Amino acid sequence: MLRLLPDVARIETPTAWTTPTETPPAEVTVEARWWQGFGDSELNRYVDAALIRNANVQIAATRVAAARAQLVAAEAALRPVLNAGMAPGATHSLAASGIATTRSAQPQLQAAWEADLWGRLADRESAAAWQLQASQAERDGVHLSIAAATAQAYIDLLARQAQLAQTRKTAELRRQALLLAQAQQQGGYISQLQLGQAEAEYEAVHQQIPALLLAISLQRNALQLLAGELPAAQAEDEAQARAFDALVLPPVPGVLPSELLERRPDLAAAAAQLAAAAANLSASRAAYLPSVQLSASLGGLYTNALNYDPIKVWSLGASVLAPLFDGGRLDAQYDAATAQREEAAYAYRSAVLTAFGEVENAFAGTLRWQEQLDGARRRRAVLARTAGYAQDRYQAGYSPYIEQLDAERNLYQTEIDVISLRQSQFQNLIALYKALGGGWQNVEPRP
């Protein structure tokens, strides 16, 4: 396709990615059903359902059917046309012998064929074939987008459920601490201020639970809509809260930059659109040349009674039509086809630039999200020890309750941060799979 690009639309494919990766290229590839690598059967069910019942998937399939019908119509223009006709008639007139009525019937077969001397019809057929391939690649691109969106929505749902579980666990710890503070305040061991701090800390954590429940409901509804299902209530399950921790992070795939152009359905669609526009431009150029059409007809003429011997009628002919003056119509059509070819070329270039940018961003994210997650996990371990020390010091009477609250507050926020960072890590890997084409292969034969 690069030979069809104008000079200003050409792109030099880089030899390597600017962001280094731990996985050497071509060692790990993206599988066609890449979402199965996360090790969650429920995720597999949602994606499989979305690839069948999602409205955008079904719309893309109808567009492929329409493009296939357009190709059949373009192919038919290269073949002869055969029509059957009947011309019955009756005449009531004055003759020398008096009033006469004549009835006639003339059945006939008519054939016509346009000789495609300059390839105009063949170019139209080629353009339709490329349009079909473009629609098929666009359909595959919709499949990839829907699979990625469904996987991201499912992981978002699991992350919110994990946050809810952590918040409930923390709220229970705060409740136990509040009960202890109430008993200590009644015994005169702590002040009313310290009891108020315990109550406020419990309420601060507990009030986050309704917000998380709402977010989970909205996320589940969005996921079910992606899967082509009506929103439905679903009972909470403790296993759902643990599903996020059970997710498997697949290895980062390696793909050479030179391979990217053949791996993404959106780039294949843009390239096919460019080829179709070039074929239409060639057909518009051929429209300036004369067209030659051959025609023939064969039939019989029956008069007054069908049992009379018919008169055989036939004709052969040819016509040559050369455009002389059309008020600028052909020039306008040629200019429009030229502009459409240029537009398709720039659209292809834009798609390629976007593709390389998405891959670079996702590769960069694989390193940076992992670094942030490792740091958050180390901080969580430190804060867990600190919270234990603060609790021991408070219970022994060596420190005020506010120190324990600060330590537990920091630990809780870090637990939430770890969940959010791991969620972002999964989202980035899904974005990388999508940017690399999701294991897509162009199995459609090129025109």
Please describe the structure with a list of short key phrases separated by commas or semicolons.
Outer membrane efflux proteins (OEP); 447 residues; 6 strands; 6-stranded antiparallel sheet
Question: Briefly, what is this?
Answer:
The protein is 61% helix and 12% strand. The protein is an alpha+beta fold.
Explain the overall architecture.
The protein is built from ten helices and six strands. Strands 1, 2, 3, 4, 5 and 6 form a six-stranded antiparallel β-sheet that branches. Helix 2 packs antiparallel against helix 3, helix 3 packs antiparallel against helix 8 and helix 8 packs antiparallel against helix 9. The model has no long low-confidence stretch (mean pLDDT about 85).
CATH class of the largest domain: Mainly Alpha
SS-based structural class? alpha+beta
Number of domains: 2
Radius of gyration: 37 Å
The number of distinct β-strands equals 6
Shape: elongated
Most strands sheet = 6 strands, antiparallel
Secondary-structure element string:
HHEEEEHHHHHHEEHH
Helix share bin? 55-70%
Poorly predicted tracts of residues: none
What share of the residues does DSSP label as strand, in percent? 5-15%
What is the number of helical segments per DSSP (H or I, 4+ residues)?
Answer: 10
